[in-house]
Amino acid sequence: MKALYDSAMDLFARQPWVRLTEDELVLVETAKSTELCFCSIMGALGEVRSLYVYIGPEAFQTFQKLQQGKTMTVGEFYAGLKGVSVEFVRPSELTPPDRAALKACGYPFKRGILAPIFRASRPGYHPWYVTEGEAQILDECQRAAAKMCDLVKAHPEQTYWSKEGVYPLFSFQGDGGEDDHFRIRTQEVPRDSRSAAEPASLDQSRIERVRNSNYLPRGVLEVDHFYGPGMIGKKNERRACFRMGLAVDAETGHAYPPEANMPEPSTGDVLAGVVLNAIEDACARPAEVRVRDGEFKVLLDPLAQALGFRVKIARSLPALDFAKGELLKMMGDPGPMPPWKD
Predict the structure, then answer these.
(1) What does the pLDDT read at residue 297?
(2) How far apart are CA 204 and CA 276, in angstroms?
(3) Among 22, 74, 216, 245, which one is least packed by beta carbons within 10 Å?
């Protein structure tokens, strides 16, 4: 924590939001993460002063959606986030654990001096305090961002972000932050760099029970899974978001028993579970299952082949969207997030 605090204050001293904008990303290969880190500085408009590190391709996709102004609920936002961050706030905004850590690190607690708070985000969870490994990742990214500020100041003529999708990449060669411990080069990042989704682990005994029941094919199901903003968990532990799988009869609008989950199960497992719930509740196999995402079709295809229904990608799922909206209201969802800005 002392190393993390020192590099945070070193970064703050450089006022990075004066040098960089939120879309001038700094990429970092860290010793503690197998995934690429995408560092974004926020503060050019003076509303916040922070560094957010998006870890991995899925998190980078979330950043791109924010940049493009795509509609996103609070639950969807948290579902796509994996990263660490430092934000500089007034001392009045510190929690007791923040205060204890900063006091141990030597923070002066003087009026007018902003204090760093460190947080980690995991997909499907609300932000929480950093672990040791997360702190080490953030420390390296803070040092890389500080060095980037020095390079921009020393060489204002150098353009590091002139090509779309190409960013400066720092690779640290040890545990220090001196010049001989890293190298910098440019790196192109694909527009769609998501990793392949994990397929569903089919419950063969459950599938056999459905087959042996000789259910006839009937109707169309609209199927999706989503996150709500509500918090699951005890007071002093990391809080999870609600995660729901939902299947709705496309003709009648009848919502079948949802599949409630913690964030850890794969999307394929959640989708397969909610389809099986609907089949068992209706005592009938669907003739067709409609989803809005091509990835969901791939995840459901093995179950479709096992039970003899087809999966179709549809632009609109009106029955499901109505039921989903009502369910989210019950869960306290505030609706789509406002357009993102610094």
Answers:
(1) 93
(2) 12
(3) 216
Tokens 């006022």 found at: 15
Give the span between the Cα atoms of 113 and 90, in whole angstroms. 7
- Cβ atoms within 10 Å, residue 106: 10
| Backbone phi, psi, residue 315, to 5° | -70, -30
Burial of 334 (0-12, 13-18, 19+ CB in 10 A): exposed
| Distances in whole angstroms, Cα of residue 44 to Cα of each of 21, 83, 162, 312 | 6, 21, 19, 44
- ∠ CA 211-212-216 to the nearest 5 degrees? 60
pLDDT for the residue numbered 194: 58
pLDDT of residue 195: 60
The token duo for 339 is: 């357009």
The Cα–Cα gap between 22 and 20 comes to 7
Cα–Cα dist 224/270, whole Å: 9
* 320 token code pair: 């499901």
**Phi, psi for 134 (deg, rounded to 5):** -65, -35
List the one residue out of 135, 296, 128, 284 whose CA is nearest residue 200.
296
Measure the CA–CA gap between 4 and 146, rounded to whole angstroms: 13
Counting beta carbons within 10 angstroms of the beta carbon of residue 312, is it exposed (0 to 12), middle (13 to 18) or buried (19 or more)?
Answer: exposed
Three-class secondary structure of residue 162 per DSSP = coil
Q: State the Cα–Cα distance between residues 220 and 288, nearest whole angstrom.
A: 5
**Residue 106, phi-psi category: left (phi > 0), alpha (psi -120 to 50), beta (remainder):** left
Q: Is 177 helix (H, G, I), strand (E, B) or coil?
A: coil
Low-confidence ranges of the chain (pLDDT < 50): 176-180, 342
Q: What per-residue confidence (pLDDT) applies to 177?
A: 47
